[in-house]
Structures are given as structure tokens and as C-alpha cells.
Specification:
The chain is α+β, with helices and mostly antiparallel strands. The chain is 32% helix and 34% strand. The protein folds into two domains: 1-38; 43-82. It has one helix at residues 2-29; strands spanning 43-51, 55-62, 65-71, 76-81. The protein has a four-stranded antiparallel β-sheet with strand order 1-2-3-4, with no helix packed on it. The longest helix is centred in the N-terminal third of the chain and has 28 residues, at 2-29. The termini are far apart. The mean pLDDT is 84.
Length: 88
């Protein structure tokens, strides 16, 4: 009886852990409000690239201009502006 409990535990525990990890990964990847579905907004996020644990580089478009931003937990700084900022 006790052996059957451990067999179920060894099978179900990694399965539940994997499902939780997969759900969190999908939530982060397809988070609402990110790159998709921006429509007619005057400010659009074109691309974001993680840089280290807490920082990102982001290219946004505002009034026809592309702006390269450095984004960290406590600060957002403009790095470059204009049409020379290219996005794939």
C-alpha cells in the first residue's frame, strides 16, 4: 500500500511541476498588453530585448519617430531617437 503511494508521488509531482512551469512560461510569453494588439495607439512598443536580470532595451514608436530606450526597475532613459533606429 505504501509503495503505491510513492509510485504515484514520483509520477505526479514532476507532472504537476512541469505544468506549473509551462503555465508560467506561457503567461509571460503571451502577457496581455505587450507587443500584440496595439492597433491605433499613438505609442507602440516595436521590440524589447532583455539585458541582464533587471534591464531591457526597448524600441518604441511615437508620432512616427522610433526611440531606443533603456528600461530598468527604477529608470527609463532615452538612448537614441530618429529613423536611424532600425527594427527587424
Amino acid at each position: 500500500m505504501m509503495v503505491w503511494y510513492f509510485v504515484k508521488l514520483l509520477i505526479l509531482l514532476p507532472l504537476v511541476g512541469g505544468m506549473a512551469f509551462g503555465a508560467l512560461w506561457l503567461w509571460r510569453k503571451y502577457q496581455p498588453g505587450m507587443i500584440g494588439a496595439q492597433g491605433d495607439r499613438s505609442l507602440k512598443l516595436l521590440e524589447a530585448l532583455p539585458m541582464g536580470a533587471f534591464g531591457k532595451l526597448a524600441v518604441v514608436e511615437f508620432e512616427g519617430k522610433k526611440i531606443l530606450l533603456s528600461v530598468t526597475r527604477g529608470r527609463i532613459e532615452k538612448i537614441a531617437e530618429g529613423d536611424h533606429v532600425r527594427v527587424r
